[in-house]
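Retry 2 of 3 after timeout on previous attempt. Resubmitting structure tokens to design endpoint.
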């Protein structure tokens, strides 16, 4: 919303330029409670392929005075950012009780073909702040399994903790793609 008024009580015209393709700058009806206030609405839903920076200059003029302000709009690409995707926990889930002293931890990596993840780093901690590392390892990402005609299916990437974890103790773990 762009609003302006004239210190001399004159009618104000509002403009915006350059407008991105498909955008609108629409003057709004006069508000009876504030009749000297001009307002207009900028409206735009960027279509696919519109990534980039847009500088729009808004101008208000009353015939003798004018002023301008600019606004920069950044449209991000809908493509994935570079870097590995975030693995999703497969097992054991948060809060689960594990009966093995050397549990197997598993995550699902991204199925996106542009995800550069080739390995997964697993870490086990003895505290919730994840500052007391107990064990860690980097393992190769599991190869996709063949689907039932619908393409490849993401297979869990797993790692077995190499040391005995004391029984009846809470541990915290995480994994990240590399």
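Retry 2 succeeded. Sequence:
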């Amino acid at each position: 919303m762009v609003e302006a008024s004239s210190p001399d009580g004159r009618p104000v015209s509002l403009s915006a330029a350059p407008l991105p393709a498909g955008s609108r700058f629409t003057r709004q009806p006069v508000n009876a409670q504030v009749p000297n206030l001009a307002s207009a609405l900028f409206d735009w839903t960027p279509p696919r392929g519109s990534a980039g920076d847009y500088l729009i200059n808004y101008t208000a003029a009353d015939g003798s005075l004018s002023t301008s302000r600019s606004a920069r709009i950044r449209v991000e690409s809908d493509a994935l950012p570079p870097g590995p995707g975030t693995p999703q926990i497969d097992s054991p889930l948060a809060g689960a009780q594990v009966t093995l002293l050397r549990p197997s931890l598993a995550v699902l990596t991204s199925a996106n073909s542009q995800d550069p993840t080739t390995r997964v780093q697993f870490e086990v901690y003895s505290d919730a702040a994840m500052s007391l590392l107990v064990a860690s390892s980097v393992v190769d990402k599991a190869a996709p399994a063949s689907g039932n005609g619908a393409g490849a299916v993401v297979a869990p990437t797993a790692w077995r903790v190499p040391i005995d974890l004391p029984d009846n103790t809470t541990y915290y773990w995480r994994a990240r793609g590399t």
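Attempt log closed. The two ends are 44 Å apart (CA to CA).
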